[in-house]
Structure formats: C-alpha cells, structure tokens
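Appendix C: a fully annotated inverse folding record. The material below is reproduced so that readers can follow the format used throughout the book. The structure is listed first as tokens, followed by the designed sequence.
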C-alpha cells in the first residue's frame, strides 16, 4: 500500500511540476482571494492583523477545491481512470498517494499565503511551531476530505459544481479549528490552540481511515 502510495504521489507531483498549473493558476487565485477578502474588511491594519488567520484559511479552502478538481481532471482524460483501475495498484495506496500529493501542494501554498499575509497585514508570525503544526494537521484533513469527495463526484456530469457542495460543509470543522489555532498562535497564547489541534487531528484520522477503506468502491463506481 505504501509503495503504491509513493508511486501515485510522485506521479501527481511530476504532472504538476511539468504543467505548472498550481504555480500559474492556483497560487494567483489564492493570493487574489486573500487580497480581496482583506479589502472587504477595510483599511484598518489592526483589524486585518487580527483576522489574518481567517483570511489565510479561507484562501486555502477555496484553493483546495481547485487542487482537487485538477487532480481528478487528469484521471478523467484519455481513459487514465481506467488505466488506474487496471494497474493493479492498491486502492488504499491510490487514495493515500493522491491525498499526499494534494497535501504537499496545499502546504506549500499555506507557507506562501502566510508570508504574504504577514507582509500585507502586519501579522507577526510568532509561535511558528503552533502555526506549522496547525498547517500540517489541517492540511492532512483537507487533503483526505478533498480526495474522498473528489472520487465521489468523479462520475457526475456536474462534478465541478457538485464537489464544492459536498466539500465545504464537511470541512467547516477544519476551517474553524485551523483558524482558532492560528489565532492563538498569532496572539501569543499557544496553550489555547491545544483543543483545536486535537479536533483537527481527530478529523484527519477519521477521514484518512474512511478514505483508505472506501476509496476502492468509489473508484470502481466512478
């Protein structure tokens, strides 16, 4: 399973490196969301600094949908999905590989957004360990949910609109937990992030387990 996961993960990352879709489309989109949401709050730098966590994670959330759609768009062309099913790869390994590739891209995006938000809105990136742990755990949860529901929506004609409808309500706890944990870190009170990190970890483990078990039937049905 882990060998197959590494193969799929490497394949997806190579595709993204060669196509540069994430660099040319997803990153600019995330930066635009970050800036536009900031403009909606007004020119008050104190307010913007206090809301940096929410701005960053909203941008990550919207970008995650684009990343998932891109991941499965690759599999839906030139009978790639059939080739994946007939390849003999462990379905659990395919799930973990696709989720891992998505998580790597999201984590890199979060680093970029955090740096840009710190520069634009003057939010000091204090307690970097809390912020990094939050990014890691929340990213695993987002990648697991996105990969799972991406496979669920793969066979639908309206998968581009169905995926956000399935994805956004489910990841509300991730958005809340990541935002609160980041707020605690940015405010210099890392102890307040512990409960939210536990929520994020439980969510990531739950959906990682669900996806590992259920991805095979979803891939066949798709």
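Designed amino acids, in order:
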């Amino acid at each position: 399973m882990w060998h197959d996961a590494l193969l799929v993960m490497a394949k997806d990352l190579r595709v993204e490196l060669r196509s540069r879709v994430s660099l040319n489309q997803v990153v600019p989109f995330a930066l635009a969301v970050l800036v536009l949401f900031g403009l909606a709050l007004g020119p008050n730098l104190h307010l913007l600094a206090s809301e940096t966590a929410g701005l960053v994670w909203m941008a990550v959330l919207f970008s995650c949908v684009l990343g998932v759609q891109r991941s499965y768009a690759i599999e839906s062309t030139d009978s790639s999905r059939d080739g994946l099913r007939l390849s003999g790869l462990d379905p659990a390994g395919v799930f973990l590989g696709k989720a891992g590739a998505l998580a790597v891209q999201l984590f890199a995006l979060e680093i970029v957004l955090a740096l840009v938000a710190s520069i634009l809105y003057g939010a000091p990136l204090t307690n970097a360990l809390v912020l990094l742990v939050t990014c890691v755990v929340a990213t695993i949860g987002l990648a697991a949910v996105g990969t799972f529901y991406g496979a669920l929506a793969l066979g639908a004609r309206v998968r581009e609109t169905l995926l956000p409808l399935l994805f956004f309500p489910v990841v509300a706890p991730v958005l809340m937990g990541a935002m609160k944990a980041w707020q605690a870190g940015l405010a210099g009170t890392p102890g307040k992030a512990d409960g939210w990190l536990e929520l994020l970890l439980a969510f990531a483990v739950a959906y990682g387990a669900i996806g590992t078990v259920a991805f095979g039937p979803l891939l066949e049905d798709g």
